[in-house]
Automatic annotation (TrEMBL):
Organism expressing this protein natively: Franconibacter daqui
Residue span, Peptidase M61 N-terminal domain: 1-106
Protein name: Peptidase M61 N-terminal domain-containing protein
Classification via InterPro entries: Peptidase_M61_N (IPR040756)
Length: 107
């Protein structure tokens, strides 16, 4: 789910729901095909939070520049929320303002 109510701050709010496994790790790529530079998409990720199916906050920690590990993943359904700072008006990023929204899903 993608929301962009905070477009004046150039923020896109992302919510992801999935079935967890005991060693759940989440990550973003550092590059995409056709763009042969390291892009560091994760530098635009802010306020990462995780919840179980009852809405209780779970422990999630950033372990590397582009990776997060979920702890206590003995829950069936996990919800992860985060904000993306979207102020890159190019084909390799994300941008939002009062007139448009552009998202490259890899970032």
């Amino acid at each position: 789910q993608i929301e962009f109510d905070d477009y004046k701050q150039h923020l896109v709010h992302v919510t992801i729901r999935f079935l967890a496994n005991p060693n759940q790790e989440l990550w973003l790529p550092t590059w995409i095909p056709g763009s042969y530079l390291i892009r560091e998409f994760s530098k635009h990720i802010e306020a990462v939070k995780a919840y179980d199916e009852a809405g209780r906050m779970l422990n999630i920690k950033k372990t590397e520049k582009n990776r997060w590990r979920l702890f206590n993943t003995d829950h069936e359904l996990i919800t992860v929320e985060y904000d993306v700072y979207a102020y890159d008006l190019s084909v390799r990023g994300a941008y939002v303002d009062q007139t448009r929204l552009y998202i490259n899903p890899a970032c």
